[in-house]
Amino acid sequence: SAAKELCSDRELVMEAVRQCRWALDCAGEELKADRSFVLEAARINPACFRFAPPDLRSDGDFVLEAARLDISILEHAADALRAEPKFALRALELGTQVLALLPKEHYANRAVLLEAVRRDWH
């Protein structure tokens, strides 16, 4: 169909992402499965990351790569990933401000807090 063709048009969808974060949700499955496309979309409009496919929002390496572009992307990572202390420790590489974007349970995790203090103690 014509609509499906339009939703698979890389240039058209990317231009739509510039205007509206929901545009990524309308992208064709092939585009949404393309890691480089989703990363570029997140660079252009970080809020669109909430519409990235669940497998990408659950991939710690991919989420951290995207969060290097804009740390607010961490808010749109999969809940299960955000809750993992190992992920929180890795996210601290981006700066201690990431704790504000992750679940508050991390404030009760000694290892996470110790790492945050180590990184922020200048």
Q: Mind explaining what this structure looks like?
A:
The protein is an all-alpha fold and 122 residues long. It has one domain (2-120). The protein contains 10 helices and no strands. It starts with a helix and ends with a helix. The model has no long low-confidence stretch (mean pLDDT 94).
Features:
single chain; 122 residues; mainly alpha
Please give the structural blueprint.
Blueprint: H1 2-7, H2 10-19, H3 23-26, H4 29-32, H5 35-44, H6 54-57, H7 60-67, H8 79-83, H9 85-91, H10 110-120
Helix pairs in contact: 2-5, 9-10
Instruction: Give the CA-CA distance, first to last residue.
Output: 59 Å
Structural domain tally: 1
Q: Helix coverage percent of residues?
A: 55-70%
- Briefly note the structural class of the backbone: mainly alpha
* Envelope shape: elongated
Radius of gyration from the CA trace?
16 Å
| DSSP summary, beta strand count | 0
Report the mean per-residue pLDDT as an integer: 94
Q: Element order, helices and strands? A: HHHHHHHHHH
* Largest sheet data: none
Number of helices: 10
The poorly predicted ranges are: none
Fraction of residues in β-strands: under 5%
InterPro entries: DUF4116 (IPR025197)
Organism: Alexandrium catenella (Red tide dinoflagellate)
Pfam families: DUF4116
Protein name: DUF4116 domain-containing protein
